Structure formats: C-alpha cells, structure tokens
Give the backbone structure.
Amino acid sequence: MKGLTMHDTIKVYPWGDFDSFVRNVADGDFVAF
C-alpha cells in the first residue's frame, strides 16, 4: 500500500475524519484500495 498524506486520506475517506480512518484500518475495515 502506498503511503498516504492527510490530504489523500481525506479524499479517500471524505465521510470521516482521520481518527475514524485509523480506527477503521485497525478494525480491518479498510476497503478504499
């Protein structure tokens, strides 16, 4: 997986903030890629 900047993350996860993005990744719910 390529590295993501905060800006890229917001584009990928426009419906959540970075904290919820990190929690989703930790929960194995990362489906953007």
Q: What stands out?
A: Residues 10 and 17 are 7 Å apart (CA to CA). Helices lie at 6-12, 18-26. The mean pLDDT is 62. The chain has one domain: 1-33.
